[in-house]
Amino acid sequence: MDWINYTLFTFGGDRPVLLIDLITSVFGLVCVFLAGRNSKYNFWVGYLYTFALFLMFWNKNLYASLILQPVSLTINILGHYRWTHPKEDEKSSENSNALKVSMLSWLERGLVVVSVLFVAAVWGGLLDKLFPSDPHPYLDSCVTVLILMAQLLSALKKWECWILWLVVNIAQIILHLSVGHVFMPIVCALYLINGLWSLYTWNKLYKKKA
Length: 210
Description:
Elements: E1 7-11, E2 15-18, H1 19-36, H2 42-60, H3 63-67, H4 69-84, H5 106-130, H6 137-155, H7 161-178, H8 183-207
Antiparallel strand pairs: 1-2
Helix pairs in contact: 1-2, 1-8, 2-4, 4-6, 5-6, 6-7, 7-8
């Protein structure tokens, strides 16, 4: 699969931008843009995005992110079903076939934080032992667990998912820079802007029970 390492151009003088970086970026941006606009079609793009991420992480030896891509795919499938098959009391006021936006309780928010920290610590420790070539096992693990939790909350259409996505975007900028990516941090900055806008728009949907 030599095409994964195909260099499109150099960025910043000597930093290569690979074909897989561009493909992943396009799928990712389209996916989050559609999710932020409350479109169920984000899941179809999400399937392609998950596959592209698997290839990119494999190419960069980010094993925690790579191994958990099947979990990410499962959450994407769950979200696709939940968004399009709401229960009677979960239906959007604007579309009876769509899941409405909801919020977590403060207790649930606390459980999310504790769960992320615990799983990231355990997974980071295991990764450090199993894959010593991973350059940043704990940061890699923390970002991966945050992504999975954000995906899960998004699958359930919880407003708080965008708060986690903002944290993920900042952490990913650090992670990508640490392994030599130049193009991806710029993409993550675009994710950050989309996340801020989506946080606002989903809050409006929540108030309208949409």
